[in-house]
Write a structure and sequence with these properties.
The protein has about 240 residues and is an alpha+beta fold. The protein is built from six helices and 14 strands. α1 packs parallel to α6. The structure holds thymidine-5'-phosphate and aspartic acid (ASP).
């Protein structure tokens, strides 16, 4: 297996072609951004935590029957994944009101929700990732009705599994974002990453934030927070 040219550089990862046409390699960076790149910084060793954490969680999700892109961890920062075409949606599941949900609906951050919610944003930097509903997604042909049904099923199944995994290490899963991809045969699988960049994780005893909100909100201690999640998950 040979690593070939870089295909794409995102805000937190680079993606490379490989000599196997069905596989890509991702390399996780320490770069952190917020507010669509308006705020920039680095979180030391974040790339290592996110790579290992995402891989571990995807393996556990696969064991629970959820299809994922994970193939093999190559190094601290590098992982082989299945080649997919990313569905250009940020798929957000929430258990507790926080962030944009708390703001939009005037609900105090930390208010538990009666049931998990699902929302979509259209992944489009030029448009600032606007919220989009399922009718708009189908009208714009970003995904079919069948694909959306599959994506929702994956999103809620991921939520149920992650809640258990984090509860076991005294962490509350407040909300998270996933992305899905299409394989050549048209099937939908979980892709991208699951990490403190893409989840809100609160200590279940103190409600301390153990995620990227420490960076977004200038709370400090982001390096330690990522390391604490890694320590609890024994990465
Ligand atoms: P929000 O409350 O800002 O909408 O964020 C909801 C969840 O999605 C939270 O866990 C952070 C995550 N998220 C991303 O992973 N990428 C993003 O670009 C944004 C805005 C949120
Ligand atoms: N996607 C946002 C950005 O790139 C980061 C975030 O808030 O998680 O700036």
């Amino acid at each position: 297996m040979e690593i070939l040219e870089q295909l794409y550089e995102g805000k937190a990862k680079k993606v490379f072609k490989t000599s196997d046409p069905d596989l890509y390699m991702v390399r996780y960076k320490d770069d952190a951004t917020a507010f669509n790149g308006a705020k920039k910084g680095t979180i030391s060793e974040k790339g290592i935590v996110n790579n290992k954490m995402s891989n571990r969680l995807m393996q556990q999700l696969a064991e629970a029957g959820i299809p994922t892109h994970f193939v093999e961890q190559l190094s601290d920062r590098e992982t082989l994944v299945k080649r997919v075409k990313i569905v250009p949606l940020e798929v957000i599941v929430r258990n507790v009101a926080a962030g944009s949900f708390a703001q939009r609906f005037g609900v105090a951050e930390g208010t538990p929700l009666k049931q998990p919610t699902l929302e979509f944003c259209y992944k489009n930097d030029a448009l600032n990732d606007p919220m989009i509903n399922s009718y708009q997604i189908m009208a714009l042909e970003l995904a079919t009705e069948q694909e959306l049904t599959e994506i929702a099923k994956i999103a809620f199944a991921v939520n149920a599994e992650l809640q258990k995994i984090f509860a076991a290490v005294n962490i509350r899963l407040i909300d998270f974002k996933i992305e899905c991809g299409r394989l050549d045969d048209g099937s939908i699988i979980l892709a991208d990453e699951i990490s403190p960049d893409t989840c809100r994780l609160w200590d279940a005893t103190t409600n301390d934030k153990l995620d990227k909100d420490r960076f977004r909100r200038d709370l400090g201690g982001e390096v330690e927070a990522y390391q604490e999640v890694a320590r609890r998950l024994k990465l």
